Prior knowledge:
Elements: H1 2-21, H2 31-67, H3 71-93, H4 99-107, H5 113-146, H6 149-161, H7 165-175
Helix pairs in contact: 2-3, 2-4, 2-5, 2-7, 4-5, 5-6, 5-7
Amino acid sequence: MNKIRFFRGVLLLFLWSSILGNEIWEKEIPPSHYLQSYALKNQESSSKGRKYLSYGSFLGGIVLGSVHTYTEAQIGAGLITIGGLIGIIYDLTTDHETIAFKEYKKIKDIQDKNQKEKLSYEALVFLAKKSTELRKANTNSSGNLIGNIAGIIITNKLNEVLLTPEEKLLNNYLDQKSIK
């Protein structure tokens, strides 16, 4: 008798969880919109920063070399110019894609709406988890160097309160906040 109740309970729980399981990505604003918006903005800002640094270093090195005539400034200008040139060449020859943009490209052309939204939601969760792991790894590596117990405790508490952009994105989707 108890075994039958147990199996009925497990069967009911399984059926109930599969019914509720589909709800998470069937919201008014679908997760694919959040992923698309974030991926495109993130990709654009990532490439802009690298380009500005590369071109700025290149031009700054040329200007520094033409203005100053003493040896140290000439060596520094040459190094800055070469660094900027390497950055420009690297930027032109390699394809830089952020993790969010790679996830967006995976789901961009999927025609089945349910599959697309499910994969988009999974991508949002993946990005949030990955950013949390990276933040914890960065906190732990810098915390060991400091050696200040109070500083480590405060940093850990701040990390619990402050969210990464990817965690904010997932929360915005779950709360259905408008996309900016």
